[in-house]
Specification:
about 240 residues, alpha/beta, Rossmann fold
């Protein structure tokens, strides 16, 4: 289980994250929902040591995590909104580069891992293609594969459907559900209500760096009136 306790981050004089606490079990999905600028992506970046944590603690399986070392241990993985892939490298090289340079694997072992993951995500025939030749959906899958190759316990996805059409949104939702089914702790930052409707998850609505309302997705969609703030955001009648 991932436990985030009283996480606070300040940029200048602004509290970007304000006393955030939540727990996510292995095999579960937590969705951080809200408009741009509410702190949901910042939370993922703090967990990945891409922004500094001001106060608070993070635990994984009851052991305190040192967020300053997660880049080395790869305990937490990040799938970026813009993928952050190396366009000048092949699909396979995007996976094997970190395995060889960071984890000191032999090229043969890195290749085997890459091929296995690419096959699982329907990209085996794209291994020798350059990233610039891929579609948006294929880049999304490659970004997930690259993260999985480093074997994290927690996977963070930042706006995973921001550049995708409704059909691909459905596909990505299925992929996220599959990650949870494999036992990963999954955190998703999104403003995409269409994605929300396709996931079995816990929803955490954020505003001004705080979680202002939380609900199980099934409970919410079965009784939206019980969760006024979430319902207003999903209905588009109140900006969160």
């Amino acid at each position: 289980m991932l436990k985030i306790k009283n996480l606070t981050t300040v940029f200048g004089t602004k509290k970007v994250l304000d006393d955030i606490s939540l727990s996510v079990d292995k095999g579960q999905i937590a969705v951080l929902l809200g408009s741009s600028g509410v702190g949901k992506s910042t939370l993922l970046r703090v967990l990945n040591n891409l922004e500094k944590c001001g106060q608070g603690e993070v635990f994984l399986d009851d052991k305190k995590l040192d967020l300053t070392t997660v880049n080395q241990t790869h305990t937490i993985g990040m799938v970026f909104q813009n993928f952050n892939l190396f366009e000048h490298l092949t699909v396979e090289q995007n996976i094997t580069l970190a395995l060889e340079k960071v984890q000191n694997m032999t090229p043969e072992k890195a290749h085997d891992i890459a091929i296995k993951l690419l096959t699982s995500y329907g990209l085996k025939d794209k291994g020798k293609s350059y990233v610039s030749q891929l579609s948006g959906g294929q880049k999304q899958r490659l970004a997930i594969v690259r993260t999985l190759a480093l074997k994290p316990n927690v996977i963070c996805l930042d706006e995973p459907t921001s550049a995708l059409d409704p059909l691909l949104t459905t596909y990505v939702a299925g992929t996220i559900q599959e990650l949870a089914a494999q036992g990963f702790v999954v955190l998703v930052a999104t403003h995409d209500v269409m994605l929300l409707e396709k996931l079995s998850c816990t929803i955490h609505l954020m505003k001004d760096g705080k979680i202002i309302e939380s609900a199980d997705s099934k409970a919410f969609f079965n009784n939206r009136e019980q969760y006024k703030k979430l319902n207003d955001f999903v209905a588009g009648t109140q900006e969160a």
